[in-house]
Amino acid sequence: MPKIIGRSLEEHRREVRSRVFDVLRGQLYERGFDAITLAGVAAEAGLGRTAMYNHFPDKESLLVAFVEDEATRYVERLTAAVGKADTPVEKLSTFVRLQLRVLAEYHLPPGTALASALAPAAYRRISAHADPITGQLREILAEGVPDEDPDVLIPMITAALGSRQVVDVPPERLDDAIEGAVRFVLRAVGMSENP
C-alpha cells in the first residue's frame, strides 16, 4: 500500500501534484516535452511509477493538468493585479508587464509547437485557459479604447506579447525591455501614458 503524504487523502493528492509539477516544470525547461517520461518525473519526484500512473495515466495528461494548474494560478494573479489599477492605462500596463514577466519566467513551447506535441483535444483543453486572459484584455480595451474593435487589437497585442525575443535579453535589461513593450502597446492602441 502506498504511503499517504499529509493528513488526508486530499492533502496527499495536492502534495503529489505539487511535487510532480515542480519536477515537470524543471524538466520542461531543461529538456523539452519530447524528452520527458512519466517514469523520469516519478523518480525525480520521489514517487513510484504506479503512484504516478494513478494520478496521470500518460504524459499528455500530465502536461494538460500542469498547464491547467499554472493557468488557474496565473489568471488569479492577473485578475488581482489588474483589479488594483485605477485607469485603463494602468490596467493595460499591468497586463502587459505581467504577461511579459510570466513569459520571461516560463518556457513552455508557444502555440504551434505545443499544438504539435499534443492531440487536438488536449491542445483545445489547454487553449481554453487563455479565454479568461483574453477576456481580461477585452475588458481593458473596451474601457480604454471603446471606439476600436477589440477583435482586431487583441490578436495584435497577444502576438506582440508572445514573442520570446522581447524577454530573451540579459537579466539586467529585462525591466527596460518590458517597459519599452508597455510603451509600444499603449501607443499601438492609442492610449496615452499621461492622462
From TrEMBL:
<dbReference type="InterPro" id="IPR050109">
    <property type="entry name" value="HTH-type_TetR-like_transc_reg"/>
</dbReference>
<dbReference type="InterPro" id="IPR001647">
    <property type="entry name" value="HTH_TetR"/>
</dbReference>
<keyword id="KW-0804">Transcription</keyword>
<protein>
    <recommendedName>
        <fullName>HTH tetR-type domain-containing protein</fullName>
    </recommendedName>
</protein>
<keyword id="KW-0238">DNA-binding</keyword>
<dbReference type="Pfam" id="PF00440">
    <property type="entry name" value="TetR_N"/>
</dbReference>
<dbReference type="GO" id="GO:0003700">
    <property type="term" value="F:DNA-binding transcription factor activity"/>
</dbReference>
<dbReference type="GO" id="GO:0000976">
    <property type="term" value="F:transcription cis-regulatory region binding"/>
</dbReference>
<feature type="domain" description="HTH tetR-type">
    <location>
        <begin position="14"/>
        <end position="74"/>
    </location>
</feature>
<keyword id="KW-0805">Transcription regulation</keyword>
<dbReference type="InterPro" id="IPR036271">
    <property type="entry name" value="Tet_transcr_reg_TetR-rel_C_sf"/>
</dbReference>
<dbReference type="InterPro" id="IPR009057">
    <property type="entry name" value="Homeodomain-like_sf"/>
</dbReference>
<dbReference type="InterPro" id="IPR023772">
    <property type="entry name" value="DNA-bd_HTH_TetR-type_CS"/>
</dbReference>
<feature type="DNA-binding region" description="H-T-H motif">
    <location>
        <begin position="37"/>
        <end position="56"/>
    </location>
</feature>
